[in-house]
Amino acid sequence: MFFLQNRPGKNEKLFKIIKFRTMNNKKDIHGILLPDAQRLTFLGRFVRKTSMDEIPQLLNVLLGDMSLIGPRPLLPEYLPLYNEVQKKRHNVKPGITGWAQINGRNAVEWDKKFEFDVWYVENLSFLLDLQIMFLTLKKVLKLEGVNREGEATNIAFKGNE
């Protein structure tokens, strides 16, 4: 039902994020995992669409690894791919929701998402966090921006051109 995965937090320190399992581990005849779209379960699709997959991360907030608001923690293999500006996203704790999530979530391109994350880090304030919380609730209720058009999950970050 749950799984743990390494993610970089503040200052790129790795922690174990807690998530609901929304995909199975089905593999092809060569032992390679099938594409995400084929592994995403019916229930998993619903859990992701309604953002309920973020609920277990409240434990990460209580443990001090995450904040309610901040840049979403991404995969550790992306760390060497960031440019110097994009690395600023790790100057704060990662969050369950953030500026990038209310401005398009997974429906925006990576460079724009990083731009939103860095803007948040550079403009951090209590009022901004309140605004993000309110707009997050609005986005979740409208089910907006969950994925890019035609994608079951977010596409991988491959680095900067």
How would you portray this structure in words?
- The chain is an alpha+beta fold and 161 residues long.
- The chain has one domain.
- The protein has six helices and four strands.
- The protein has helices at residues 36-39, 42-49, 57-63, 99-102, 110-122, 126-142; strands at residues 2-8, 14-20, 67-69, 95-97.
- The strands form two sheets. A two-stranded antiparallel ribbon has the order 1-2.
- The protein is globular, with a radius of gyration of 16 Å.
- The mean pLDDT is 88.
Detail the topology: elements first, then pairings.
Elements: E1 2-8, E2 14-20, H1 36-39, H2 42-49, H3 57-63, E3 67-69, E4 95-97, H4 99-102, H5 110-122, H6 126-142
Parallel strand pairs: 3-4
Antiparallel strand pairs: 1-2
Task: Report the mean per-residue pLDDT as an integer.
Answer: 88
Figure out the total of helices. 6
Secondary structure class reads alpha+beta
Report low-confidence residues grouped into runs of 5 or more: none
Order of the strands making up the biggest sheet: 1-2
- Name the shape in a single word: globular
Fraction of residues in H or I helices:
25-40%
What is the C-alpha radius of gyration, as a whole number of Å? 16 Å
DSSP strand count = 4
Order of helices and strands: EEHHHEEHHH
The structural domain count equals 1
The separation of the N and C termini measures 38 Å
Largest β sheet strand count, sense and barrel closure: 2 strands, antiparallel
Strand percentage, roughly? 5-15%
